[in-house]
Specification:
92 residues, mainly alpha, 50% helix, 0% strand
Length: 92
């Protein structure tokens, strides 16, 4: 998003997932360190963010940021926390 100050929305070529991960990982790591995986989740601000990045590229950046977390931690960051906080059900 333009408000984040990276300037990706004015570039001719959108950022890669590697570039996004590298520029933002310290913020994610800090939040996870402060609050733990049980209180953090990966999310996006789509469709607002599409002026700067595509959804697949952003999602891939999140996966790269989470690369060194355990499978249990990844489960919380990508699914478990959201399920719990938003009261989502896996039943249909």
């Amino acid at each position: 998003m333009p408000v984040n100050g990276f300037g990706w929305e004015v570039r001719k070529q959108r950022p890669s997932s590697d570039e996004i991960a590298e520029s933002q990982k310290q913020y994610h790591y800090h939040a996870i360190e402060c609050f733990g995986v049980n209180r953090c989740m990966f999310e996006s601000n789509f469709p607002v963010e599409k002026v700067s990045v595509s959804y697949p590229v952003l999602w891939n950046a999140f996966k790269k940021i989470a690369l060194n977390f355990s499978e249990t931690e990844k489960h919380e960051l990508f699914y478990g926390t959201a399920k719990r906080i938003y009261g989502l059900s896996t039943e249909t």
